[in-house]
Amino acid sequence: MSESAKTLSFLGAALLTVVLAWGTSPNLRQQPQDFSEVGKPFFPDFKDPAEAKALEVVAYDESTASSSVFKVEFKDGVWRIPSHHNYPADGKERLAKAAASLLDLKREALVGRRESEYTEFGVAPPLGDSSADLKGRGNRITLKSESGADLVDLIIGKAVPGKSGYFYVRRPDEKQTYTAKLDIALSTKFGDWIEPDVLKLDGPKLVDILVEKYSFQVQENGRAKMEGHEVNELSRAKSADPWTLKGLDVEKEEVNQDEVRKLVDALDNLQIVGVRPKPAKLSKDLRLAEGISLDTATMLDLQSRGFFFVPTKNGEQLVSKEGDLIAMTDEGVVYEMHFGDVFSGSTEEIEIGGMSKSDADKPKDGEAQEGDAEKKDDAGQKKSRYLFVTASFDADKIPGKPTEPVEPTPPGEQPAVDENASADATKAANTPEGEDPQRVYEVAKIKYEGDKKKYESDLKAWEEKTKSGEKKVAELNARFAAWYYVISAENFENLRQGRKTLVKEKGATPPANPAAGPGPGLNLPNFGQGK
Can you tell me the distance from the alpha carbon of 493 to that of 262, in angstroms, rounded to the nearest whole number? Predict the structure, then answer.
């Protein structure tokens, strides 16, 4: 064979090798049309964040090989969380921020074209049909319009190494995996999507707190037994005043103001960590505020949470498994808080229920309830407690109700006997010797006219406060009526304080009481949480 022929033979073999490599290598075998999408938005028709009326996040936790679904939607004029018993959501602004962060999301580099690469990039479906491969599953985010049409549907995978803010992403209806820059303002924590101030209570406005501490145990014979009954009544005239405690031995004892502040702060900043819907009939009765009509279903549901109605001389009375707290403000709002059963569970179980071991986690009748402040039980699950809340109105708690002045009596007329008569009116009726009765009367009359105008102005202002208080109570009960709340064990301990913590010897330094930690929440892995 000539040298030229040999050279052509080698070139042909090399060319064949290149062709074969191009046909088999996933990095080289890219078709031109694959690259034509680079730089284009994933969802070109999504142009207005306000169109988003529903959000669904499927978050996969590789450490537990489990997926959690979180939903928020706008329906019938109200934002709700379907995954959490349709609890009302404070979601308009948060959802708008989440939607805006996905607007014009562009396809950056193309990194994969095959399903076999999903695990490598972490973009496998989080709710995959097969459990054979539990690694490499991503988090799926879906935004929908009011009509239910998909505006955004995206699987977010692992962070791109060496490129801050970049992630591997894929549309579920496509096989190609791209990189994209994401600064997503999103949280899947239940507490981040609801009204955080559940009681709408302002701590400085508190004037009276009554803590009724007891344990209500059901015996094997079905009878109930109350244990450790203790009542502590705290009060103050105004926010600047120190708290006083009824029954205090002032010679030897003083109120532990630091512990009372913890109690007030716990009320002021009370956050719920879960919810359960009340039976429809019970919810309706509570909204009407005309008393609860008890039937078997209602009683069983209440008892399952640790609340019981028992007959008293004043009718049926609600008794809680772990006592009550009544807090009164100078707005006339009276909060009645009842503490029910304790239970343990995962974050999801605490938020929406479905405890797999609820019966096992509940303390047996007769067992001490102390120690609830531990964040977790022996199994590593968080402890929480049911809370039943109602509100009522007491106008007498609103300060500043004016006393109507009494009109002075003209000279020569017998004044009516009035224990509440003003000093000026009495003076006019009993003119001192040597003074002109008519002159005294005229001066008192002028003073009365001024007092009358001030009284009418002050009364109007006080009545406006009563209307505001009544309105607030109505709004609170409209919200409270539908739900049993769940609070953390730490919050429970700070609220249900007894004489042991509220009172100290004069001059003594009380032991430190650990502050409550944060409540549970569902964290979305792999990318940042919204603020």
Answer: 10
Phi, psi of 408 (to 5 degrees): -65, 155
C-beta separation of 491 from 516 below 8 A: yes
Q: Are 230 and 215 in contact (CB under 8 A)?
A: no
The total of other beta-carbon atoms located within 10 Å of residue 392's CB is 15
* Three-state DSSP class for residue 250: coil
d(CA 21, CA 407): 109
3-class DSSP state of 15? helix
Instruction: Look up the pTM and report it.
Output: 0.75
Answer whether 134's CB lies under 8 Å from 143's CB: no
pLDDT at 308: 86
**Whether the predicted pLDDT of 19 surpasses 60:** no
Residue labelled with tokens 């007959």: 311
- pLDDT-based confidence at 44, cuts 50/70/90? very high
Distance (Å, whole) CA 226 – CA 378: 28
* pLDDT tens digits along 468-501: 999 999 999 999 999 999 999 999 999 999 999 9
Residue 346 pLDDT > 60, yes or no?
A: yes
Q: What is the pLDDT of residues 180-199, one digit of tens each?
A: 999 886 777 888 889 878 89
Instruction: Work out the angle at residue 530's Cα, subtended by the Cα atoms of residues 526 and 531, and round it to the nearest 5 degrees.
Output: 135
**Nearest CA-CA partner of 399 in 331, 467, 326, 471:** 331
Distance from C-alpha of 288 to C-alpha of 424, rounded to nearest angstrom = 47
As a whole number of angstroms, the longest Cα–Cα distance in the chain is 154
What Å distances lie between residue 165 and 79, 365, 420, 491, CA to CA? 30, 53, 74, 37
Distance CA 373, CA 489 (A): 5
CB neighbourhood size of 410 (10 A): 14
Residue 148 is which amino acid?
A: G
- The set of residues, in sequence order, having a beta carbon less than 8 Å from that of 258 and lying 6+ positions away, is 510
3-state helix, strand, coil in the chain (%, to 5): 30, 25, 40
* Residues in the chain, total: 531
Residue with token string 């409270």: 480
The residues with which 315 forms a beta bridge, in sequence order, are 312
Mapping DSSP onto H, E and C, the string for 371-401 reads CCCCCECCCCCEEEEEEEEEEEECHHHCCCC
**Angle subtended by helix axes 437-480 and 280-288, to nearest 10:** 170
Give the chain's end-to-end CA distance (angstroms, integer): 76
Q: What is the CA radius of gyration of the chain?
A: 34
